[in-house]
Amino acid sequence: MAGKQYVWMDGKFVDSGKATVNVLTHSLQYGSGIFEGVRCYSTNKGSAIFRLGDHVERLFNTAKIHSMPLPYSKEEIVSAVVGTVRKNGIKDGYIRPFAFYNDTHIGLSTSGKKVGVAIAAIPFGNYFSNKDKGIRCKISSWHRINSQILPPMAKASGNYLNSIIASTEAKSSGADEAIMLSSSGYVAEGTGENIFLVKSSRLITPSDSSDILKGITRDSIIKIAEAMGIGVEEREVHREELFTSDELFFVGTAAEVTPILTVDNIRIGSGGIGPMTKSLAERYSGAVHGEEEAYVSWLTYV
Fold this sequence. Notes:
Blueprint: E1 6-9, E2 12-15, H1 26-30, E3 34-35, E4 38-43, E5 46-50, H2 52-65, H3 74-88, E6 93-101, E7 115-123, E8 135-139, H4 160-172, E9 177-181, E10 187-190, E11 194-199, E12 202-206, H5 216-227, E13 232-235, H6 239-244, E14 247-252, E15 256-263, E16 266-267, H7 275-288, E17 299-301
Parallel strand pairs: 8-9, 8-15, 12-13
Antiparallel strand pairs: 1-2, 1-7, 3-6, 4-5, 4-6, 5-17, 6-7, 9-10, 11-12, 11-14, 14-15, 15-16
């Protein structure tokens, strides 16, 4: 992107190179930050942010779960996100609201510590370089965190160490992404994506009981599928169901709708991108680009 890039930081815009913290900042040392990932897309009415209110709501839910007192209201964060996209002139991009303990005291306690908030917006394309052709996955030997360990429904920085180690393992074996199982052995999700199966013209996705993050893109795909007359099941999924599914795909803010061609080198369905995956991907793309009248309410125009 030409020109300067700005970050909204504690109520004002600063040059991204000056949006810095001390190396001893609590959330850098201990992973105690919380965040959201939001996309904006070009439309015929200008740039539009996808389901911004829902993302901000989840940010505040995560803060509540972690007892983090955010110093701004939901309305202020919404306004700051819109302002950051506008300030940077982003058309198609990724937005990262991030709240953290901006305190250099050594020790685990967060009581009384200053909470800072930063919002960045950058141009963004495909998360997976081969997204349009489909990716190869590996079932990870690392299990997904559960509510007895860390709250998986919170989007917190520390949770993603679990994802990073699974992703590293998968890529070192030649796969593009990992699929993680719950502590009970059921399919949970990818390292940063929810997963859907297609079987006998029905859409199946792991339920809350499988330690998933309740993705906003996941919810969007469920709503779109139901509007298309596609039956949707949310339930526990056995790992072997992945191998025998007709189609398989990831969804997520970054991943959007990404087809999965193989799991553990086993070909899924016919080995190509299935018709339901394709139709859902097209409808989702239409929704985020303001081409689907039924989903205009999901867009916040900049």
